[in-house]
């Protein structure tokens, strides 16, 4: 089971790198929603692989989101901002901080080698000061990507 969870976390990291490269955006945190976010080991692996804090708490995200949209559409909730405040008050978040940066960087390299996947861009290692230490907001930095000289993204 551990191998499967690590693989899914590493594939999510691969997908995130490609999305960030294509969009030109930077992210500082991830939110894991739905039933899968109840798996604490997987969520910790996701934080480790992506080198970003991951927040969980809304386990029935589809149903809750639908309900909030219905209330907004019907006028019972006046705005998207009000819906977000209701969501934050109703579902406390749990934060999973990234750990073991060097070990997970090595796992990611092994994952790419084993799968033959080639990301459009590679994670910047410059935000890692030491084992598990991250610069930036509250000790963590954003995930940034830099363009590859050549090559195509894997499937």
What does this structure look like?
With 155 residues, the protein is α+β, with helices and mostly antiparallel strands. 46% of the residues lie in helices and 12% in strands. The strands form three sheets. It has a three-stranded mixed beta sheet, covered by helices on one side. Helix 1 crosses helix 2 (40-50). Mean pLDDT is 84; it is low at 126-140 and 146-155.
In short:
This protein has about 160 residues and is of the alpha+beta class.
Could you list some keywords that capture this structure?
two-stranded antiparallel sheet, alpha+beta, 46% helix, 155 residues, 7 strands
Which strand order does the major sheet show? Answer: 1-2-3
Mean pLDDT: 84
SS field, number of helical segments: 5
Provide the succession of SSEs. Answer: HEHEHHEHEEEE
């Amino acid at each position: 089971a551990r191998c499967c969870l690590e693989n899914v976390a590493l594939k999510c990291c691969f997908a995130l790198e490609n999305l960030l490269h294509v969009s030109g955006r930077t992210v500082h945190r991830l939110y894991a929603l739905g039933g899968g976010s109840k798996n604490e080991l997987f969520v910790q692996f996701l934080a480790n692989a992506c080198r970003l804090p991951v927040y969980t708490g809304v386990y029935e995200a589809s149903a809750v989101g639908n309900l909030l949209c219905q209330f907004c559409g019907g006028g019972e909730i006046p705005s998207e901002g009000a819906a977000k405040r209701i969501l934050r008050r109703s579902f406390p978040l749990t934060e999973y901080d990234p750990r073991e940066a060097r070990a997970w960087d090595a796992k990611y390299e092994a994952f790419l080698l084993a799968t033959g996947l080639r990301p459009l861009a590679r994670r910047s290692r410059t935000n890692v000061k030491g084992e598990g230490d991250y610069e930036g907001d509250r000790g963590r930095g954003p995930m940034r990507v830099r363009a590859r000289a050549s090559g195509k993204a894997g499937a």
